[in-house]
Every structure is written in C-alpha cells, then in structure tokens.
Amino acid sequence: MNLLITSAASATAQLIAGELSGAHTLRLTDLPENASGDIVAHELGHESETDELLAGIDAVINIGYQGQSGSPAHLMDYSTRRMYNLLQAASDAGVKRYINISTLRLYEDHEENLVVTEKWRTDPSAEDVDLLNAHIAEYVCKEFARDRLIQVVNLRLGWPFVGDSSAKPEDTAVISHGMIGAAVQEALVSEELIQWQDIHVQSPIEHQRFNTNTAARLLPGLAGRLSS
Amino acid sequence: MKVLILGGNGMLGPWAVKAMKDRHDILLTDINDPYPEYKGEFQKLSADDIDGVVKAAEGMDVIVNLSVLRPHRQLAFDVNTMGNYAMMLAAREHRIKRVITTGPHFQMVGQQYEEWDHDLNPDMPPAPGTRLYAHTKALGQEICRVFSKRHGIQVLTLLYYNMKHTWNLGGPEATPVYHDDMVPYSTAWQDCGTAVQAAVEVPEERLATKCETFFVLPDLPHAKFNNEKTKRVLGWQPRYHVEALWNKDHRTPPSGLTEAF
C-alpha cells in the first residue's frame, strides 16, 4: 500500500515507519521546521498543495499524540485546523482509511481496577497540552467519519513504548515497538471495521491495565499476541 | 458584575450590550471598532490573541464570547476554536467562575439530527459533522467542556440559528418571506440579546452541572427544537415569536375589522 505518515520526524512516526517500511511504500511528511532528509516539508494548509500530498495514497497514518511540539497555540492549531485540512484532502482524494495514533493516557485518571474498554468516555486533562490535543484530534477525525467521508481507525496505544518486553512493574499499560507496528499493520488491512473504530492496544503483561479484547476481535493477526 | 465581551461588534454584540449595559460593567472587545452609538469601554482585541485575552480578563467576573467567523478556513479555526481556548486559559488564569460562549445550533445538531428528528434538545451529544462553521464552533465548545470539567468553570453555551428583525422578520442576509417553509429555529435579535443577559445573571444553584447548553428560540409550533430548558433554567422569556412567519392569520385582512363579524 501507499501510505502517508504525518509528523514524520516524531519518535512515534519513526518507530511506525521502521516497522512498516518493508511491506509498504511510505511517504513521510512533517511541518517545514521539523522536516529533513526524506521527509516532505508540508504546512498542511487548505490550498491545493495538500491535495497533491495525498495523491495516490491508500491510507494515512496520523500521529495524533505527541507528533508535534511547541506552544499550546501551535499544538491546538495543528490538532484542529491542519487535521481538518488533511482529512478533507484525504477524503477528496478517495483515501480509504485514516489511522489516528492516539493514546490510552486519555484514561490515565481512571483507577487501575476499572475494566476500561473502548466504550468508556475519555477524560482528557486540560493541563497536559499533549493530551488535550490528542483528544481534540480524535474529535476532528470522528466528525469526518460521522459524515462518512473517510473511515477512521482510532488506535489508542498504551504507554510507555519499550523496545523489548522489559517493562517496569508499574508500567501496567506498556506497549512494545513490535506490538505498535503489528497493530498499525493489522489496522491497515482489517475488514472488520466500522466507519469510526476505536481500538485499544497494549502489550500483554501481568496486571495489564487495559482490556484489549476489541483488538483481538477486529485485528485477527494480532490476536495471538494479545492477552485474552 | 464586570463582564468581558469578546467579539462584541458583530451582529449579536449590540443586542447583548443593549440588554446588559445598565446592569453590568462591560469591557467590549473586537477587532473592529464599535458602533458609534456605543459609549462604554472598548479595547481592540482579537479573540484568538491568547495573551491579549488573558490580560483583558483580569478582574472580570464573567467572559462572554460572541466572536464568530465563518467562511475562511484559517480564520474560522482561529476565531471559533482558538478563541474559546484563549477564553478558557484566561478564565483559568484569573479564576473566573463563569464563561458564556455562543454559536450556531448545528455545532450540536448536525444534519443527521436535523433532517430526521424532532424535539431536539440541548442535552444531546454534539454531532456537528464537518461543515466548517459547525465543526470549528463545536471544537471550541469541546475545549470549554474539558476545561469546565477539570477546573470547575461554569460554561454556558447559547446556541442560535436564524436571527430576525422584529420590524419585518427579515434577517441580516435575506429579505423576509412570509408563510413559507421557515427555519424552525428563528429568534428576534432582541431576544438573542436578553438570552446573553440571562446567562450572565442566572444563579449558580439553578444550573444542574458546570457545563450547560441552551437553545435560544421562541415557542414555535414545529416542535423541531425544544426551548423548555432555556426558559426554565435561565428564566428567559422571548418577547417575540416571529408569528407572521408561521401563522397565516397574520396576513393583513383585506376588509379591516369586518372579519370579527
């Protein structure tokens, strides 16, 4: 598939690109102040340049959490206006699927004993601008899915990201790099998804914090790697 | 009370000022100069200027955000979304307990609702869709909701749709059309203004939660939108019911008083 990955200079995008590069053709993009090397510098404005960025793309992988850094105003602008421009261009270009990489930290204030699933409402912080913007980015995506302009898979990933399975005992929502790559890969190809699809993913560990049964059901290739 | 009004020189601002000017101390702000008739305090300020809004809000009891920009994508996000973000940062900074935000009804009532259902009410989950105006305003409202939940700031959202002059029931962008398929959410400008006043003044104990939304429209027979909460909670009573738009009896009788016999 031809994939566009946004906020490509971010650690999350680099990780995902590394996991997917062997199986897909990647187009990487980021804002001009972040772009270098093979990353296409792009403002994600509302002019035709954004349409050109989406030409020939089958699916978009948007880093909706910690893809950008900067002032609160910059982050809010990115998560709202630029996301809207990107989604509009993607829907106009006939892109089939938009994978928004979000975070399970949107539930971090819920007690760990609660069986939090995709049916639970998120509870973002107003103080943590990254979390507030992750929530707002989800909101923008959802409305495009609601209007049936594009299918959106909202992947809420655990934290922290670790390179192997050596998580600390207190990291009950940990996710491995390999699990992230596999989840995105499966979200690209799954045929079980509805127009707006929340999916929670974290690595299987003792005292695992989040329920991942939806991921196991909808992302069959991931099922054997998740706890049940 | 000391009331900061953002975007106060648009269409709604003068009516809100008229309703409140003898009851509260108003600091009017806008990117445009005020109408010549306005005699109060004024400051040139864009609603999306975070530092400027925070500074202007110092010492205020209430912030009212009437700012709106519709057609231009950059400006719509700047004003409709970022403006509310700036307002909430200011409210948090100065521990302001109440903010009033305004917008179009379809920031909550998207097409899925409006084309299918009746008795639509302001406690429904927002479903604005992707139309620029609705979407950007809805994002602003969602930012307000998050700040309200986290900081206990009272957020009162007033939703409007079609505003009418009382003298001919025309609107700002259209000539009046009588006895046709009217917009079943039409409100006289005067009543739009008094709703802002009611939201500023409503006692806290009448609000069920810290974050409440109200549909501002008179009693209309279509039963498409429900204004019961607005009247009950805010104590707002519309003076005008735009009846000539929906009641054929309001046609001028051809024969004077003889219809009585």
TrEMBL record, chain A:
Q: Name one Pfam family in it.
A: Epimerase
**Residue ranges of every copy of the NAD-dependent epimerase/dehydratase domain listed in the record:** 38-180
Q: What is this protein called?
A: NAD(P)H-binding protein
| Taxonomic source organism | Candidatus Lucifugimonas marina
Automatic annotation (TrEMBL), chain B:
Cite a single Pfam family from the UniProt record: Epimerase
Q: Which domain of life is it from?
A: Bacteria
Residue ranges of the NAD-dependent epimerase/dehydratase domain? 3-163
Q: Which residues form a coiled coil?
A: none
Q: What is this protein called?
A: NAD-dependent epimerase/dehydratase family protein
Organism encoding this protein: Candidatus Lucifugimonas marina
